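User: I'll paste a sequence; please echo it back and then give the predicted structure.

Assistant: Echoing your sequence first, then the prediction.
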Amino acid sequence: MKYLVTGAAGFIGYHVAKRLLNADHEVTGLDCMSDYYDVQLKADRLKTLEGRPGFRFLKVSLEDRQAMEQVFQQGWYDRVIHLAAQAGVRYSLENPHAYIDSNLVGFLHVLEGCRNAEVPHLVYASSSSVYGANTRMPFSVHHNVDHPVSLYAATKKANELMAHTYSHLYQLPTTGLRFFTVYGPWGRPDMALFIFTKAILEGKPIDVYNYGKMRRDFTYIDDIVEGVIRVADTVPRPNKAWSGDAPDPATSAAPYKIYNIGNNNPIELLSMIEALENALGKKAERRLQPIQPGDVPATYADVDDLIKDVGFKPSTPIETGIAKFVEWYRSYYTL
């Protein structure tokens, strides 16, 4: 099959593209190589993909309307897996315009491309951050998510609404995936695990927010990729039981679906740090800090729909995943 994977030089996009190539699919990888974090890390991810049979790379910005139109005019895709975005909750407080440009304008260009090219299925990244001020646990795709607490979260919720509109108007099958705190080899340097690992190895203190009481549904990258691939193979159909009198947010009378992909096992931040200390063989100097604006105190994924529809549940223990990340980190930075 022929796939378009946006964000192919990014953390999740790279792993998805690699998995598809290993299965002998054709992959067009798209990325703008933004400098939000170390561009060299993105380039090194790409190096492991370029030259492989079936892979081609396009350096394109999502917000470039003309370039995005050409991407869809010059090739046919059985699936579009849209993982490119301006990521990061805290950075959205500093540079909100980047989120509008990439996550809203850019996503519109993806939707228009899929509509005009009659792509059979668009799978796109949403985020657990859409749950915002919700406190009912575990977070279910059948709960309303109308109270985001960061602009990043608001753009991801907007993506789900935009996708539903295209599913309704044009019968474009769309599936949104709410990822929960993804980590693993080749991870993002702006994420806590990466920041903590670097600081601990350099003998520097780490800032532990919400006084270490933050709880996250840490999800290992291989589990995320498995979920993405299985969902891409499961084209959503209209829910015939859907009713406007009691609307289900996760489905629709249109070919539209939302899934959580999370480990279904929230871990306290202090426990994550202990697992990291064990993997590194070194203790951290901890500076306990209050919760930061835009952060939520806990995430916990209900994955019942994912299990029911695609037969998969993320299950990698945090100790196993962190050990694999540390092994990669030491190798990549030759430590």
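The two ends are 39 Å apart (CA to CA). The first helix runs from residue 11 to 22.
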